[in-house]
Every structure is written in structure tokens, then in C-alpha cells.
């Protein structure tokens, strides 16, 4: 981390970063871990999660647009989390907590079935080389896991600027049990742009390079869905990436009502 990120981490991580028991990797989560999100935020509220929040551009805008929600982000890169802490503080956004960990493990181990109101997966790593496609986050197993964590009527919103990944995601979600395209999709199944999602620097670069932005929006049905059995590692894309120079471990974030930004 650079000096400003280290300063932001030291000042704000104790309040906003939720520490969890670690597995055998720096970004993994121990199988017996758990978080009571209502207790962590200090209030009962709809739970919304972003996986792969980066430097927090979309996260901050989405959380500001949903002050009624408890918003959780999973991100594996500590410098990006530190930058997010600075952004949230500057904008006085207090309804966010961040977990420095793999998002797929976080969804499985820290979120109860049918607990989620919304899941956001915006511009996940496309792993565009064919030999790396197996590392992509959105696959049938992850789709079943996501569906199991969404409450009936909950939304899974996705976006990507890589055409082949967009097509692959649409195919996976169309086949996933417990999910159906949200009203408003066009004839090809693409959703209108989610109004609360800002144009981030990453998206602008993709558009500037001539890539089309594809949005997807799927709604959880009432059909029962079981999460797939965990594999040996139970990790998703991005697992195993270093968290960087971890300054210190932090306790559970302070409740929302007791520790405003």
C-alpha cells in the first residue's frame, strides 16, 4: 500500500472492515466462520452484496442510492480496500462494511440461505484467454450458490464489457435453477443498464476501447435451490491473491448506529 492507503487503513479499517477467521490462504475464510450481519451493522435491514468491489466506485454509489440497506463488499486486494475506505469516508457513506476475502467463499460461509436482497457482480475478471476460462467467477456452481443465498424476489445484477463472457454468463444464468430474467430484458436477454450503477473508470476504458457493455438482471424465483457441495478448496475466482501488507487484524466493524463515519 502507498502511504495514503496505509493511513486510510489505519484510520478506518477498525470500523469498516469485518475481520473473519482465515483458512489456509490469506484471502480464504475458515469453513466454520459466520457473521450476524444485523448485529454487525447494528440494525435489521435488507442485505446487499458486491463481489469484487475494486476501489469502490460502484460500491459507494450503490450504497448511497440504498441507504435503507446494509451493504457488504468482498474484495481480495488490500490497497483497493484502503482506497475504498477513503472514498466512503469522503462521501460520508456509513452503510457499508468490507470483508477482505474471496467473494465465493464469503457468499457460502458468511451469508445464510435466502438472506440476500441483491447481489452485484460488475465487471468480474474476464480471464479472456481460453485456457483461463475455468477461473471465471460466474459458472454453474457459483450461480447455484448465488441463487441459494438470494431471497425470493431478490436480484442478481451483472455487467461485463467482454462479449464472450457476457454470452457465457447469460447461458449459465438461463440454465440456473431458481433464477429467471427480470422484466425489461430485450429480445436477446440483455437487461437495461441498472440506473444506480455509475460509469466507473474501468467501464469507461472498456467503452473507449470499443467494447459493448452488457447488463444482466435475474430474479430469484420461489423454487427451492440447494447450494452445490463445496469442493476441496471451496474458492472462487481471485482466491489466493495476496492481501498485500496487512497492517493489522481488525475486530468486527462497529454497529452502524454506534459508529457513524
Global mean pLDDT: 89
CATH architecture descriptor text: 3-Layer(aba) Sandwich
Tell me the CATH topology.
Answer: Rossmann fold
Shape: globular
Percent in helix? 25-40%
Number of strands: 7
Rounded to an integer, what's the Rg over CA atoms?
Answer: 17 Å
- Biggest sheet details: 7 strands, mixed
- Uncertain segments: 235-261
Element string (H = helix, E = strand): HHEHEHEHEHEHEHE
Q: N- to C-terminal separation?
A: 22 Å
Provide the CATH top-level class: Alpha Beta
Strand order of the largest sheet: 3-2-1-4-5-7-6
* Name given to the CATH homologous superfamily: Vaccinia Virus protein VP39
Whole-number count of domains? 1
Question: Structural class, from helix and strand content?
Answer: alpha/beta
User: What percent strand?
Assistant: 15-25%
Individual helix count: 8
Written description of the protein model:
With 261 residues, the protein is α/β, with parallel strands linked by helices. The protein has one domain: Rossmann fold, CATH 3.40.50. It has helices at 3-16, 37-41, 57-65, 78-90, 103-110, 140-149, 163-175, 201-208, and strands at 47-51, 70-74, 96-99, 116-122, 150-160, 179-181, 214-220. It has a seven-stranded mixed β-sheet, sandwiched between helices. The longest helix has 14 residues, at 3-16. It is globular and about 50 Å long. Keywords: Methyltransferase, S-adenosyl-L-methionine, Transferase, tRNA processing. Residues 222-261 are annotated as: Disordered.
Amino acid at each position: 500500500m502507498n502511504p495514503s492507503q496505509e493511513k486510510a487503513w489505519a484510520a478506518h479499517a477498525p470500523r469498516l472492515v469485518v475481520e473473519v477467521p482465515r483458512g489456509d490462504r490469506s484471502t480464504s475464510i475458515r469453513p466454520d466462520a459466520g457473521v450476524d450481519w444485523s448485529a454487525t451493522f447494528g440494525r435489521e435491514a435488507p442485505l446487499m452484496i458486491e463481489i469484487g468491489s475494486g476501489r469502490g466506485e460502484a460500491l459507494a454509489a450503490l450504497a448511497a442510492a440504498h441507504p435503507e440497506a446494509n451493504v457488504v463488499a468482498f474484495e481480495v486486494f488490500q490497497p483497493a480496500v484502503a482506497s475504498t475506505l477513503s472514498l466512503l469516508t469522503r462521501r460520508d457513506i456509513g452503510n457499508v462494511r468490507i470483508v477482505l476475502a474471496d467473494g465465493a467463499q464469503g457468499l457460502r460461509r458468511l451469508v445464510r440461505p435466502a438472506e440476500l436482497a441483491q447481489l452485484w457482480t460488475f465487471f468480474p475478471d474476464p480471464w479472456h484467454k481460453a485456457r483461463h476460462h475455468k477461473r471465471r467467477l460466474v459458472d454453474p456452481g457459483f450461480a447455484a450458490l448465488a441463487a441459494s443465498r438470494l431471497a425470493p424476489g431478490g436480484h442478481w445484477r451483472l455487467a461485463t464489457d467482454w462479449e464472450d463472457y457476457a454470452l457465457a454468463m447469460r447461458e449459465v444464468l438461463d440454465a440456473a435453477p431458481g433464477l429467471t430474467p427480470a422484466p425489461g430484458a430485450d429480445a436477446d436477454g440483455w437487461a437495461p443498464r441498472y440506473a444506480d450503477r455509475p460509469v466507473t473508470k474501468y467501464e469507461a476504458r472498456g467503452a473507449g476501447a470499443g467494447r459493448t457493455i452488457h447488463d444482466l438482471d435475474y430474479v430469484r424465483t420461489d423454487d427451492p435451490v440447494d447450494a452445490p457441495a463445496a469442493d476441496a478448496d471451496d474458492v472462487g475466482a481471485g482466491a489466493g491473491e495476496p492481501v498485500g501488507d496487512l497492517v493489522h487484524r481488525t475486530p468486527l466493524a462497529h454497529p452502524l448506529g454506534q459508529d457513524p463515519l
